[in-house]
Amino acid sequence: MIDVTKVIMHEGFVNKSGKTPRGSDFWFYNDIAVLKLKTKLTYGGQVGPAILVNNAKEKLWPAGQKATIMGWGYTNMFPVMMPSLLSAPMTAMSEKECTRQFPTDYMQLMICASGFLRGPCPGDSGGPIVREYFSKKSGKFKNIQVGIISRGPGNCQYDNNEYAAFTDTYRFCGWIERIIGLDGICKRLEEI
């Protein structure tokens, strides 16, 4: 367990509720925060860096492509947090599909995805979704963080009609660098 000394939420964070194409629901705008940790992280095992990207000629996570979520949240409707980090594959959905599930203005800062019977559950919010990207510079695959878990169906039941929403980290790179006070945290694809 790592102690957090400070949480800096996005100044534009808004929790809204209302009518969506699926009925009554809630959603968060600018759902992102930076955490200041009490101690430095030691990389190894399941702890390692994910690269943030601030530019892309192509979409970082195009529809149909797989990425991996990670979290310690519930695995079903029973409120038991997991003692070890779990992961699950998700598939990016098209913008058209996403706007059938969520308000259009919401999706401008988000990405949505579907998992086959698996996906983020309560307790996973704030966790990463990463995809492998082949770096031409290094000749190796690198993990790029494409999003942050924002919401999914509250009952943890995923089928072909249930999507999860992720904050699109690409759109917040400038904010992250400003809050941290360091330029260059977010990389150009050509640099990785």
Brief summary of the model shown:
The chain has 192 residues and is mostly beta strands.
Please tell me the CATH architecture by its name: Beta Barrel
Molecular shape: globular
Q: What is the string of helix and strand elements?
A: EEEEEEEHHEEEEHE
Structural class: mainly beta
Protein name: Peptidase S1 domain-containing protein
Domain Peptidase S1: 1-181
Keywords: Disulfide bond
GO molecular function: serine-type endopeptidase activity
What this model shows, in words?
The protein is mainly beta and about 190 residues long. It has one domain: Thrombin, subunit H (Beta Barrel). The protein is built from three helices and twelve strands. The chain has helices spanning about 95-100, 105, 175-180, and strands at about 5-10, 15-20, 25-30, 35, 50-55, 65-70, 85-90, 110-115, 130-135, 140-150, 165-170, 185-190. The strands form four sheets. The protein has a six-stranded antiparallel β-barrel. Strands 1-4 form a two-stranded antiparallel sheet. The protein is globular, with a radius of gyration of 16 Å. The two termini are about 30 Å apart. Pfam families: Trypsin (PF00089). This is Peptidase S1 domain-containing protein. Keywords: Disulfide bond.
Features:
CLIP_Serine_Protease; disulfide bond; Peptidase_S1_PA_chymotrypsin; 3 helices; 192 residues; mainly beta; Peptidase_S1_PA; single chain; 12 strands; Thrombin, subunit H; 6-stranded antiparallel barrel; Peptidase S1 domain-containing protein
